Amino acid sequence: MSARALPMPRQMAWPLSSDIKTSLLCWGAFIVLLTCYCTVYQIVVDRTPANLSGSFSHVFKNWGIWLLTTPAVFAALRKYSSKWHERAVELAAFVTLIVFISAAVPVAIDLLTNARDAATSLMIFLPRYVAVAGVVYLVWYVFLRDRRSPAETDQTDEVVDAVEVASSRVEAAPRVAAVREIASEPPAATLLVSKGAHQCLIQVSRIECVSAAGNYVEIIERGQRYLMRAPLKQLEAELPPGQFIRIHRSHLVRRDEIELIKNQPSGSGIVQLRGGHVLPVSKKHKQALQRLRAVE
């Protein structure tokens, strides 16, 4: 899967530099404290002269790799935080890969220094690093995740959409014009989209849902994911009226694809589509959706 098929969300709780700073702060403090503990252990228990540099080298060998891999885990958690239902397997696979890569570093060092064999070293570090992955998630959840409540998110919907449309209208207009010129059917019957490094035309009548993704929109058509460079608000205006409904600032779905609407205690909700996709419903748009379903 290409990088373009998995764009980062357009809004992040904190800039990426905060991921790095948080990793350096937390792991730096942990390494310093553990180094001090090892030094005290040498003096009190082993009754040997303190070897501060040796203690630091030992601790850094075991845990230093997480200074690099933790920001990657933070970025993945942020990327998939709004799409747990759809991409939980991808997130789990990524975190598992990070854990194994992290464990491979001390294992390789043990092999090079003849400290212990690979199997023993892996059995030592792998359970520890699995636990560390859980701690990294807790740090992200407490310090880096987006804490805005659903109500606060709903209040900013219209403002964000207006700014997005105003800033990209000039760029998006030629794109929409190009789509109309290329398509042989009436306007908005087809869309020119990207799939990896290629472009293709898809039928609007086959679209299940559309989600905002930075400067692009992610379009799902019969289970296939495509990208189109246009704001969600602009594309919504180009789609056939009455066939699609906005359920969230970042999500637009075809009315006929809605299979189930679930309520949540916060006042928001979840929409399950016939194709299996699950999308969040903001409190503001949930009311409009319920009125629409009542009329139908």
UniProtKB/TrEMBL annotation:
Key words of the record: Membrane, Transmembrane, Transmembrane helix, Two-component regulatory system
HTH LytTR-type domain sequence ranges: 191-295
Name of the protein in its database record: LytTR family transcriptional regulator
Superkingdom of this protein's organism: Bacteria
Entry-linked InterPro entries: LytR-like, LytTR_DNA-bd_dom
Sequence intervals crossing the membrane: 62-77, 89-109, 121-143
Pfam families according to UniProt: LytTR
Organism: Steroidobacter gossypii
PANTHER family: STAGE 0 SPORULATION PROTEIN A HOMOLOG, TRANSCRIPTIONAL REGULATOR-RELATED
Transmembrane helix is among the record's keywords: yes
Keyword Transmembrane helix: yes
